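Entry:
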Amino acid sequence: MIILEKGEAQFASPASYPMAPFIERMYESREKVIREDTIHVKTRWFFPTHGKVQFAGSIGFFSVGLGYRLWDLYEPTLMYGHLSENFGGSSVSVQTISLKNSFFLTRSPWFKHFWPKTGLLVNWGNTNTTFKKLPPHYPKEYYFQNKVHIAPFLGGEWHIPLEDKHLTGLGVYFEFSALDAYLLEAIRTEYITIKDVWSLGFGVSFYFQ
């Protein structure tokens, strides 16, 4: 959206998000001065506010995604993950689409830069061994579908502000996550303990202007 104004520009108030300059800069209006006129350019609502590159962490050996910041503390990101023999050493190739639902646990960062986060992954996996419904030769209630999984996670992100016309900052994060199937096995069997089911992932976030 472009507003042409004569003389001084009118600044729009940034959205109310966790108190940090990089978040305010993501949503404030930008402007250009052409001769005596000011072109006031507002951020497009549909343009992603961040991108992520992640290693491990219940999505795949390697995953990438784009997302938004909504309702102050909620950060949904659509991720694509890949696991194969070349990437992760798996005998089965797995393509995963994941909706990563992240929530800020505080309204301001710890130590001025660290944001504690929690959330829930909703994963849709595709391989030649995944299924939405049990084949008839499997015993009832012994296995359950392995096409869609949910995975809670807990972690945090260290944010590095940037003074750039395209990027407002970078974030380095870590997460401990566990797939629902592993949690269920830890609860109902003695062979797997709750400490065995967690996966550690690392990633980098890119915050766009």
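DSSP finds two helices and eleven strands in the chain.
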